[in-house]
Amino acid sequence: MVKPILLDQQLCFSIYQAHKVFNHFYAKALEPFHLTYSQYIVLLVLWEQGSTSVKALGQKVGLDSGTLTPLLKRLEKDDWVSRKRSKVDERRLEVSLTAKAQDMKEQVYAHVGSCVEAIGLSEDSYLQIKNDVESLQNRLNEVSEDAKVF
């Protein structure tokens, strides 16, 4: 008989719980800007890369168009982004930051950055945890591609 791994011993459960706490943490941190975490990561991509297509944006943040489209509509309604058809290829929908988003960039960065400091991790610890999580993600991607495991 296989010995079961109890709930409190499950790595997946620890990550799930941390994910829930992070969502709550970011919800509070982003509340003054009326942004959700998903909206925030979309803005991060646009602040880092500039205008991009909806398709490329979805690939970068890991959201499908069914999730991304309503999110972008809300950001557009709140004047954070604009969406326009490409002049080169009408099938391509381009997403760009508005003047408001450009003006608010430093304020959002400063606010969220100060919240991250509240976690109390050294820069080395922060980077180590981030690297460990990315390594785990890569391993999971490799395993999930190997159909023989399941």
TrEMBL record:
One term under GO cellular component: cytoplasm
**Main localisation:** cytoplasm
Location(s) in or outside the cell: Cytoplasm
Q: In which domain of life is the source organism classified? A: Bacteria
**InterPro entries named among the record's database cross-references:** HTH_MarR-typ, Transc_reg_Sar_Rot_HTH, WH-like_DNA-bd_sf, WH_DNA-bd_sf
Does Ubl conjugation count among this protein's keywords? no
**Membrane spanning stretches:** none
Q: What Gene Ontology terms describe what this protein does at the molecular function level?
A: DNA binding; DNA-binding transcription factor activity
Q: Which terms are listed as keywords in the entry? A: Cytoplasm, DNA-binding, Transcription, Transcription regulation
Tell me if Transmembrane is a UniProt keyword of this record: no
A Pfam family this chain is assigned to? Staph_reg_Sar_Rot
Q: Which residues form the HTH marR-type domain?
A: 8-145
Mind telling me which PANTHER family this protein's record contains? TRANSCRIPTIONAL REGULATOR, MARR, TRANSCRIPTIONAL REPRESSOR OF EMRAB OPERON
Family, similarity comment: Belongs to the SarZ family.
Q: What is this protein called?
A: HTH-type transcriptional regulator SarZ
Q: Which organism is it from?
A: Agrilactobacillus composti DSM 18527 = JCM 14202
